[in-house]
Automatic annotation (TrEMBL), chains A, B:
<dbReference type="Pfam" id="PF21175">
    <property type="entry name" value="RecR_C"/>
</dbReference>
<dbReference type="InterPro" id="IPR023627">
    <property type="entry name" value="Rcmb_RecR"/>
</dbReference>
<keyword id="KW-0863">Zinc-finger</keyword>
<dbReference type="Pfam" id="PF21176">
    <property type="entry name" value="RecR_HhH"/>
</dbReference>
<keyword id="KW-0233">DNA recombination</keyword>
<dbReference type="InterPro" id="IPR015967">
    <property type="entry name" value="Rcmb_RecR_Znf"/>
</dbReference>
<comment type="function">
    <text>May play a role in DNA repair. It seems to be involved in an RecBC-independent recombinational process of DNA repair. It may act with RecF and RecO.</text>
</comment>
<dbReference type="Pfam" id="PF13662">
    <property type="entry name" value="Toprim_4"/>
</dbReference>
<feature type="zinc finger region" description="C4-type">
    <location>
        <begin position="60"/>
        <end position="75"/>
    </location>
</feature>
<dbReference type="GO" id="GO:0003677">
    <property type="term" value="F:DNA binding"/>
</dbReference>
<dbReference type="InterPro" id="IPR000093">
    <property type="entry name" value="DNA_Rcmb_RecR"/>
</dbReference>
<keyword id="KW-0234">DNA repair</keyword>
<dbReference type="InterPro" id="IPR034137">
    <property type="entry name" value="TOPRIM_RecR"/>
</dbReference>
<dbReference type="GO" id="GO:0008270">
    <property type="term" value="F:zinc ion binding"/>
</dbReference>
<keyword id="KW-0862">Zinc</keyword>
<dbReference type="Pfam" id="PF02132">
    <property type="entry name" value="RecR_ZnF"/>
</dbReference>
<dbReference type="GO" id="GO:0006310">
    <property type="term" value="P:DNA recombination"/>
</dbReference>
Amino acid sequence: MQQEFASKLLEGAVTELSRLPGIGRKTALRLALHILRMDEGMGVALGESIINMRRGIRYCSVCHNISETEVCPICGDGRRDRATVCVVESVKDVMSFENTGQYAGLYHVLGGVISPMDGVGPDRLEIDSLVERVAAGDIREVILALSATMEGETTNFYLFRRLAEFSDVRITQLARGVSVGNEIEYTDEITLGRSLLNRTLFSDSIRR
Amino acid sequence: MQQEFASKLLEGAVTELSRLPGIGRKTALRLALHILRMDEGMGVALGESIINMRRGIRYCSVCHNISETEVCPICGDGRRDRATVCVVESVKDVMSFENTGQYAGLYHVLGGVISPMDGVGPDRLEIDSLVERVAAGDIREVILALSATMEGETTNFYLFRRLAEFSDVRITQLARGVSVGNEIEYTDEITLGRSLLNRTLFSDSIRR
C-alpha cells in the first residue's frame, strides 16, 4: 500500500532512500524518521557526505578503481611493483586485498564477471583495457583474483585465452584450498581435492 | 576490522551512513558503492533530499507531528473534528491512522511510551503538553491509541490518571480483539478473552 505522507520533503527523502539496494519503502521511512530525530547538523552532514562523494569520486583511468584523481593513489604509487597486476571484480575486492597487507602490485577492476544469465558479456567488462595494459609491455604477471564460482572460472578462462598471445607474461590465479578457520568436516569435496593437489610444504608456512 | 579506504570521500559517506539504525559499516560500504554506481544526478538527489528534509521539517507546535510549517496540516485543517484527540506514540502511527481513512479528529504525538527499563519517564514524553491541550477546554474525547504492550498499558494508565481531573472529557482506548485476517487457533488467550468481553453486534459490522 502506498503510504500517504504528511510532508512532501519526507516523501522525497523516502523515495530516494528506497532506491538503495535492500531498502524498501518501509525501511526508507524508518531511516528518514531516524534522520529527523538526529541532530540537524548530523542529518545535513549525512546528505552532504553523499553529495561530496558522488561528485568527487571518479574511476581511475588506468585500473578503474575509485579515485578522487585521474589516476588512483595505487597506480600513482612509485613504490609499488608495476610488473604485477591483480585482476579483481570490484572496487570492494581491491579494498579486501589491500587489507591483507600481502600485495604490493597494481590492480585492474573488471567491473564484474562474465555472466550470460545476467546479460553480462565480455564487452560489458574492462577486459579490452586490461589487454591494452598488458600489450604495453611492462607487465610480467597477471593474477586472476576472481570469485571461485562458475562465472568467475568462466571469466578466468576467457581472460587466459585473451592474454595467451603475451607468451612472456605469467598468468596465475589465487590458490584454491581450505578457508582459514574452516573445519575439514564442513569443507566441500571439490575444495578438499584442490587443496590436496596444491598442497604446500609445511616448512614454508612456518617461515612466513 | 577497520577497513582502509582508497578515498576520504568514500570513508566520510560510509561513516555517516553507518550512523543509521540497522546499518553497520559493511552495509554502509555496500550502499556507498551502489551510490557511486548510480547516475550522478540520482546520487546527488539522494543527498539533497536528505538535507532538504532535515532542514525543512520541524515538529508541529500543537500535536508534535512532523510538519513543514509551525502548525501541521492536520491541526490546521478546519474540516477536522477538533473535539477529538488521538494520542499516539510516533509520527509513523499518525500515518498509519491517516491511512485507515477512518479518523477525522486531531492527534497528539507522545514521542514514545513510558519505559523505566529504557530510562523513559513521563517527563521525556509530550504528556504535559497533552494535559495543557485538554485543559484548554475544547476537547471532548481523548483516544488512547498506544501499543497493547506492558509499556503501552502503563502509559495508558498514567495518562488516564493525569486526565482524570477533566471529568467531562471521555477517555477511550482502541478496541482489543482478534486481528483481521488472523485465525482463532493462533490468537492468544488474553486477546480472545478481551474479544469476547468486548463483542459487538454482528448487524453493526454489516452496516459499515
